[in-house]
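In the previous chapter we treated chains in isolation. Here, by contrast, the input contains two separate entities that must be folded as one system, with a combined length of 222 residues.
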Amino acid sequence: KNEVEQSPQNLTAQEGEFITINCSYSVGISALHWLQQHPGGGIVSLFMLSSGKKKHGRLIATINIQEKHSSLHITASHPRDSAVYICAVLYNNNDMRFGAGTRLTVKP
Amino acid sequence: DTGVSQNPRHKITKRGQNVTFRCDPISEHNRLYWYRQTLGQGPEFLTYFQNEAQLEKSRLLSDRFSAERPKGSFSTLEIQRTEQGDSAMYLCASSPGQLNTEAFFGQGTRLTVV
């Protein structure tokens, strides 16, 4: 069992839809990353957060430390948002573990 | 600084051959991580370094795998006697090493064992 669980595994949306990707983890962490991976493998860090909420453009990330849960939201989705979104947790010793990723496809 | 650099970007090798990958982290980043990613899966932890010290190794890192970071700067990952199951994307990331800091990823090295 992966200690970082993401859902859904695959998500298809129509352009303009509001999208939510969820991440749950099993033990206490110091921070959580949301990452974006495009075909070809390059990974970009979208957010790093340890509490509350962060917003960047159409992307919003929230985390609930007590519930051990985080969500990534995309408002007004666009085909260029199509990618794999990965949740990664950072433990207190700076060790990092990843979820399996959510493959998002946004259709025009 | 151009970010985390990995070389080569692609490697095709015959089964049984040895391969070595290199990762150049962002300057002055103390932490360096190696991950392996197979198709459709999230990255799996292999090992990480704090400066030149290798602090943890995954059980995925069999005896055929070895990683070094001799001077606390660049790192190499060597796979000996490659097997077809080693085919994957090998990702490197670095971070300053302090609490609550962001990790930066390289583009990865895609290994194909034929």
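Chain B touches chain A at residues 31, 33, 35, 37, 40-45, 48, 50, 55-56, 89, 91, 93, 95, 97, 99-105, 107-108, 110 (CB under 8 Å). The mean pLDDT of chain B is 90. Compare these points with the single-chain example from earlier in the chapter.
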